[in-house]
Amino acid sequence: QKEVEQNSGPLSVPEGAIASLNCTYSDRGSQSFFWYRQYSGKSPELIMSIYSNGDKEDGRFTAQLNKASQYVSLLIRDSQPSDSATYLCAVKENFGNEKLTFGTGTRLTIIP
Amino acid sequence: EPEVTQTPSHQVTQMGQEVILRCVPISNHLYFYWYRQILGQKVEFLVSFYNNEISEKSEIFDDQFSVERPDGSNFTLKIRSTKLEDSAMYFCASFRGMNTEAFFGQGTRLTVV
Question: Which residues of A touch B104 (CB under 8 A)?
Answer without folding.
Answer: 36, 43-46
